[in-house]
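Obj.: predict assembly geometry.
Materials: sequence records (below).
Method: joint structure prediction, all chains together.
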Amino acid sequence: MPPPKNPINSSPAGEKPRLSRDLVLTTALALVDAEGLDALTMRRLGQELGRDPMSLYRYAANRAALLDGVTELVLKELSISPGLPDWQAQLRQMAHGLRLLALRHPNVVPLLVTRPLSTPLGLRPLGTLRPLEQILALLIDAGFSPSDALHVYRAYYGFLYGHILNELQEFVVDPEENEALLRLGLHRLPAKEFPRLRALGPVLADYDGAAELDQGITILLNGLAVPLVHEEAAPKH
Amino acid sequence: MPPPKNPINSSPAGEKPRLSRDLVLTTALALVDAEGLDALTMRRLGQELGRDPMSLYRYAANRAALLDGVTELVLKELSISPGLPDWQAQLRQMAHGLRLLALRHPNVVPLLVTRPLSTPLGLRPLGTLRPLEQILALLIDAGFSPSDALHVYRAYYGFLYGHILNELQEFVVDPEENEALLRLGLHRLPAKEFPRLRALGPVLADYDGAAELDQGITILLNGLAVPLVHEEAAPKH
DNA sequence: CGCGTAAAGTCTACATCGTAGACAAGCTTC
DNA sequence: GAAGCTTGTCTACGATGTAGACTTTACGCG
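Observations (raw structure tokens):
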């Protein structure tokens, strides 16, 4: 199908509300959600707002900055979860929160995992760093030393991002064609080289992301029950 | 500095070897390693090979396919590790192998984690699926049921990708300016909002990726020692 | 050897992109 | 009303991916 040129939101191109960074980012996010990252061009976004593309540069220095703004906007959706009994339950809940966020904005996930690669930690937008601070506080309050808290955070968030990437990879839009496509794909694999993978066809077909995530978190928490070892150097083998 | 236009490899633009998919992908990878993803344009790659940009389309359908080719090429570098005592040591070693691969080609990592999002599992290039099959075999041989093996694989690889993303984020090229930049960045953070993060400055400054990864794997393996629970549905809370 | 066919490489052309720079319109504050 | 800043617009340029027609090269078969 040809790329749909109709405006995403309801403005019938007649009204012209005053622009603002927030409005720009919001419609940018809507556009990405609806049509993917490639659809977010300066020109298209301008047209979506009924404005000259150049006007956008008053609110974002360039396209990259605009992308950063969108990721920050998405991360702001992360609701903090106050007052759960223990830190473990809290970690679990935050994990599910991030997962749902990713499912709500799958097209933004590449940005989420990729944009920070270009910006050193200290210089990232504050919204991006807030979850980190929260989890550190949570862990330290739970009794971890600050440095251990950092390590735990890394394991936790690392796993979390990894899970999200995994889940989105296996996600196929239409569940009807899902199985067909999957089987077709698996069938394509040479039987001698990929016996186990092919045998897993049925299991792969019904993927339960929430359960999978939960199981992973359980593994992680169980592992954390064993006290962390502190070593002077990385083990030789 | 202006973008360096000198050819990356040693060909002095006089010789014109016959093109091949392998040659194209190899120089593409070299270009990405040397100058980043953005430098990999059809025109630039053509110039690198001393050929018309259009000739590339004989070996890759379009730019996206070229990127896929590069990721597959990188994954082929993953050396399989035969004959280690137990499966745990093997997982650990493969993890370090992937980590080193990522450090060798940091600019390709975004592709590694991002490209599969656009391609359903069954239709991915074979090279991409080979590690999956290998780990499944490893786990099943170690006594896991096929379906448990899949879950463990997901937790393992998820964590692994997450760690790599984490590590590359905190990686700064010049270790001299590292500390400066880091402190500068941290100093920029509002003290009331980010007390723990700011306090971690020194710990953040000396990051040991290998040790961090090792610790994470240990946590994961410890967690796996506790038998996996099988639930009918995801827990309510 | 020669010739015909397929493969490999090239040329031209076009739509689309990000964005620099000069300018105009509109709002705020005396 | 005038001055000055903010916001939006216009025009223009270089770079990008790639379609389509063309030319060149390589190679098999008589």
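Conclusions so far: Chain B has two domains: 1-60, 85-225.
To do: check interface contacts against the pulldown list.
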